[in-house]
Amino acid sequence: QVQLVESGGGLVQPGGSLRLSCVASGSRFSIDHMAWYRQAPGKERELVARIHSLGSITYGDSVKGRFTISRDNAKNTVYLHMNSLKPEDTAVYYCNIVGNSYRINKWGQGTQVTVSS
Question: pLDDT tens digits for 96-105?
Answer without folding.
Answer: 999 999 999 9
